Amino acid sequence: MSESQKARARCVRASCLAPLLAGAVLVPVAGAEAAEQAPQADGATTTTTTTTTTVSGGDSRLDTITVEGNRLYEMLPSEQTGGYSVDAATVGTKIPASLRDIPQSISVVTRDAIEDQNFDTLDQMAKRTPGMRVLTNDDGRSSIYSRGYEYNEYNIDGLPAPMSSITGSVPSLAPFDRVEIMRGPSGLFNSTSEMGGIVNLVRKRPTYDFQGHVTGRYGNYGQRYIESDIAGPISSDGSIRGRLVVDSTDNDGFVDRNDNQRSNVYGALDIDLDPDTTLALAFLRQHKDIQVNNGLPTDANGDLVDFRRSKSFGADWNAFNSQSNDWIAELTHRFDSGAYGRVAARYSNRNADYNYAFAGGALDENGSTTAAGIGSVVDEDSVSFDASYSQPFQTFGNVSEFVVGSDYKRYDTEQETGRTRSLTNGPVDADAFGDIRYVDILGAARRSGRGYASSDDTLEEYGLYSRLTFRPLQDLALIGGGRISHYDVEYHDRVADTERTRSDEAFTPYAGLVYDLDAHHSLYASYSQVFNPQSDVDIGGDIIEPREGDQYEAGIKGSYFNGDLNARLSAFRLYDENRAAAPANGANNYVVPIGEIRIQGAELELIGSVTDQWDVIAGYTYLDTKVETASTARGDGTFLLMPENTVNLWTQYSFEGGRLDGVHIGGGVTAMDSFSGFAEPQVEAPGYAVVDAMIGYDFTSQLKGSLNFNNIFDREYYSRVGSTNTFNFYGEPANVVAEMRYDF
Hints:
TonB_sidphr_rcpt; mainly beta; TonB-dependent siderophore receptor; five-stranded mixed β-sheet; transmembrane; receptor
């Protein structure tokens, strides 16, 4: 970071942007020239400046100018401020709010934290992020969980689109400045989402000054990565700015026949229509070409087999291809009153096709198993739109703020799938899977009708929302809000030629409070809700009611060293009701909405910078799950995959001055206790702890290099288990990744 960038970063952290905020109100007063600053709420700042104006007759009048606005709208990106901390987040709040002022569990992973640990995809990052659990698959195809539930969407600047492992829509991180993570339901702004929370990716934006870098990386197992990132003004006055990020990854993987190639192109324009109005346009294309690995089988008793870690139960022709395109448009305006308006839209188009073989059952006494297969084509289109208006205002000498808005989203998915339990005439030896003859699994299913499914479904939702942060006292913020939603669900089974539809309205409330104990600590509590439409039918053939989730959370947050280090201790309880459950009579042609789950736990987290040279991410998660009423015969076994105790730690230190000037060292631990698979017989995996390390050196102010050592003690462990035939994955063996970066 340049000296000018550092100065701007210090300015923002010291709130020196407050006098620049939009809006002025003239109030006659008497007194000498002075300046005062009122307390902040959700980042809102009121600056009062007294000036003297000379009028006819030699008299003078003192006027007070009051400027109101949310300074956090002016916060710099994390790539410029540096370190592991940021001032605020927008996830789950719609308007920027300091982390202490959000009464839920929020984490922000900055650009420095992403780069120090060589995270290329969201699932790689989630593996080492406190409070998150990743069910391992190929990078970019894993399932990401929090508090027992999978994240089924990811937002780009607050605009959602579906995310799933089966479609490979887990995003790469090169186009993004930081990742904001909310744990637990947030139905106020994402009402038809999952119970686990929201992931919001904040885009890298064009810059007023020219900047750029090239990064190259090489590691064990043929890992090759290259990235180019260029940004700067396009017009001479800087009113039009652009950014282009291009990256490519090619990784052979430590498992045989498991190549993983990914490439991304991101382009963005910011256009200042006037000093207070900006139009932003962006395009992101992500492509994946993967030779699929679906995990290892167990023996007939569900016991894990001592395979070599490179062992593959996949054919040479296993393939997964996907491409996604995102178009984003955003118009923002700062009003003279200090208000802020935003209208934004995102269109996403995803296509995926895959055809691969995997173990169809447990190993027999001869070390053989059947070869199963799946082939599919998926087309997914989504549109999301959001319009919001926020306004700070004074109450009882304090600053409050409200936001009102409306949003819309529509998800359309078409999918054809073919499945087979046996690709061969008999069992296949464990060492012969690579030689299985090619089969077009979807094509064969189309022709025979066996194992064939074809469907399209649509989720459409309109919503009106409002949220108020009210400060009756300087140290107390009362937060309340509500959302009215109308949704339509349509499901068409093209094989049976049947359709299911459901339309309904729902009100989603939200409540919270934050009490500042002192300058560094705040107590908080909140109640949040969410609902999730389902496509299963009841005994009458109608789509059943949505699942409903409620969460109660309380805790204490801390902010230290001028906000550079954030801490949180929280406890939560979450209820999930109306999950589609099999009826007691054993019928398989309809369901009943009786599934109930109670999840409770606690989290401890520390993220940020202890000093200008020392950064840290640390967290502990405790999770206790109780299935009150199972929704399937397997007993909602996904929750067995969630360990009860998880620990994450990463820290990095940069030396300045002396013989070690320019040296960076880092290290971390990821640990969890035992967990189980989701089917009978249950597959059990022991707990593990993996240690990583990093060393880097700044050769010049522009050229930097680093070595990342992953699993330095070469711990052999299973990162995920599933059933007797599949989804049992070894963790990555010891490996080293070298990186060079040049900034210009």
